[in-house]
Amino acid sequence: MRVIQWILEQIFPSRCAGCGIVAPDGICERCREQLPFVEEDACPKCGRGAARCLCGKRYTTAEGNEVTFHFSPQYQQLVAPCYYTGAMRRGIALLKFHGQKRHALWMGREMARSLQKQMVLSQIDLVVPVPLSRSRLRERGYNQAVLLAREVAGILELPFSEQVLIKTKENAVQHTLSHHQRLLNVEGVYAVQGELSGKCLLLIDDVSTSGATLSSCGQALYSAGAEAVVCCVAAVTVRREDE
Ligand SMILES: [Zn+2]
Ligand SMILES: [Zn+2]
After folding, report:
1. Could you give the number of structural domains in the chain?
2. Ligand nearest to the CA of 31
3. Could you tell me the pTM of the whole model?
């Protein structure tokens, strides 16, 4: 550890996303065990446990947004280790809005573990993150999906690229929109640089709510020749009544 990192760690020690105790990993063992894990029989399209499948269903998220999960998303499978509640939800907020990049480490581990257990593809050629637009990237300084994708790729020993999929237009933030608006909002927003003929891709993001963003990215990847697209997110949202 570099000296400056060591000093920072003494002043601002890493804290658990769940209970706030000092935890170098970003999550303590107890909170890790109590993460809101998705059941093992997850639906391949919406990533929720089979009994909680939301495919094509209208629902209200815990944040009060009315959404419908995509009817026929443009990817083969969506894998998520957790639901977007509890320590996972707090960890994502810390990662995304408070600059605490270390939370990508434990989330990446959980994502890799779920992929090893559930992924339908036996081979992945490239891991790609859902991109941010240039202006959003400038604002935040980093893309949380890149941090997660790099972590997952490292653990699974897969090649990774943040140059392949790019965002060509600035659009409204998804969670402010209705389902129909969400679909229109992400249409034609993503583009692929290069050729992906016959390639199997693993697409990474932090959270999936309606599946519209992943599906739009999937469409761009398939249009560039991809043979298969599997998605993995740290968390999938839940219905308000299930929270
Ligand atoms: Zn804890
Ligand atoms: Zn489903």
Report:
1. 1
2. 1
3. 0.91
